[in-house]
TrEMBL record:
Key word Transmembrane helix present: yes
Residues spanning the membrane: 21-37
Keyword Transmembrane helix appears in the UniProt entry: yes
Assigned keywords, A-Z: Membrane, Transmembrane, Transmembrane helix
Name of the protein in its database record: Uncharacterized protein
Length: 44
């Protein structure tokens, strides 16, 4: 999943996306990772 997300980020950079949307996409990605790790910790 991380590799796919990195490919999407790289594609957005190559496509010339605006920096604001790129930062927002990265923020949502980090929040998703943080939430997933938190869920795994609570299950264990």
């Amino acid at each position: 999943m991380c590799v796919i997300s990195l490919c999407i980020i790289g594609y957005k950079i190559a496509d010339g996306e605006r920096n604001r949307s790129f930062i927002w996409f990265g923020f949502l990605f980090l929040m998703a990772i943080w939430y997933a790790l938190r869920q795994l910790r609570t299950k264990n």
